[in-house]
Specification:
Blueprint (H helix, E strand, L loop, with lengths): L8 E6 L11 E6 L4 H13 L4 E4 L5 E3 L4 E7 L7 E4 L2 E5 L4 H10 L2 E2 L11 H7 L2 E2 L2 E2 L4 E8 L2 E6 L5 E2 L2 E2 L7 E8 L1 E2 L2 H18 L5 E5 L9 H7 L6 E2 L2 E3 L6 E4 L5 H19 L8 E3 L3
Parallel strand pairs: 2-5, 3-5, 4-21
Antiparallel strand pairs: 1-2, 6-7, 7-15, 8-16, 9-10, 11-12, 11-15, 13-14, 17-20, 18-19, 19-20
């Protein structure tokens, strides 16, 4: 199969460069599409060569194993980013930074995306995970989603896009979300900006933003908060290799210099064991763990 001229495809791409944790082995093939035809070309290639396809964004909630990812990895990031505002709606492609969309809403005096100002990663990942923070989440804002698969393209309306805590329909279906329309409300730019500044200050005070991490490591179990449980179990600062439970927020694991994904996998497993033994609660990872074990 001949690739289109100029398609940004790489072989044996080190996934540590596509993850905020800075660890991870190679992807067999790594594609950064700049357009919808690029994505479609990648899917045709994968189908013709029987390669599995893995979709990633900016890698801010990603842990890739040391053996890496087999098949084709498609990254929808800054090369696949465009947005526009029409009335109270923002139409954006999957590679748009979530925080940048929050700032775009502010510039147009639109409220509803304030919570996203400090949420790392892109729109595609936010939709996939139904990202949220500070009592806000993206699911209720969705008006329409455009997607494609090897079989064609499609649209989900607001009623067809199901979601729950850190879960969305995207996780259950083999599609690539390419664009979304978010429905916001008119608001006061001064009030919107003030709320965003307050949320940013809270993040800086509470989260280890100065260290490489993949964000919140575990989903919040019903009626519990993960950070306090881990801290009460005496695991704050606990380290395996170069993977450490943050001393600033025990719900985050940080990279203190390791190049091994296995350090993080071992630390996650150890925390799960301790918390289940102490509290009878099985912590479920919120980060995506990808790759060959």
């Amino acid at each position: 199969l001949v690739w289109q001229e100029g398609l940004d495809l790489q072989r044996d791409y080190p996934m540590r460069f596509a993850s905020s944790l800075g660890v991870g082995g190679p992807a067999d093939y790594f594609l950064r599409p700049r357009s919808l035809p690029d994505v479609q070309e990648g899917l045709r290639f994968a189908e013709a060569t029987s390669l599995p396809v893995t979709l990633v964004g900016y890698g801010t909630n990603l842990l890739v194993t040391d053996k890496g990812i087999r098949g084709l990895v498609i990254q929808l990031a800054d090369s696949f980013a465009a947005a526009r505002v029409e009335g109270n709606e923002i139409t954006a492609t999957a590679g748009c930074l979530f925080g940048s969309l929050s700032r775009l809403a502010l510039r147009h005096s639109l409220t509803g995306l304030e919570f996203a100002i400090g949420v790392p990663g892109g729109l595609g990942g936010a939709l996939y995970m139904n990202a949220g923070a500070y009592d806000g989440e993206i699911g209720p804002l969705v008006k329409r989603i455009a997607w494609l698969s090897s079989d064609g393209v499609g649209i989900w309306t607001r009623e067809e896009f199901s979601y729950s805590y850190r879960m969305s329909r995207i996780q259950k279906e083999n599609v690539i979300v390419t664009e979304a329309v978010l429905s916001l409300q008119s608001g006061c730019s001064e009030a919107i900006g003030a709320q965003m500044l307050e949320l940013q200050a809270q993040r800086r005070a509470r989260q280890p933003l100065e260290h490489a991490s993949a964000g919140s490591t575990f989903k919040r179990p019903p009626g519990r908060f993960v950070g306090p449980m881990i801290e009460e179990a005496g695991l704050k600062g606990f380290t395996i290799g170069g993977a450490q439970v943050s001393t600033k927020h025990a719900g985050f694991l940080i990279n203190t210099g390791t190049t091994k994904a296995q350090d993080f996998l071992d630390l996650i497993a150890y925390i799960q064991h301790v918390i289940q033994d102490r509290y009878g609660v099985l912590l479920e990872p919120e980060i995506r763990i990808l790759g060959e074990r």
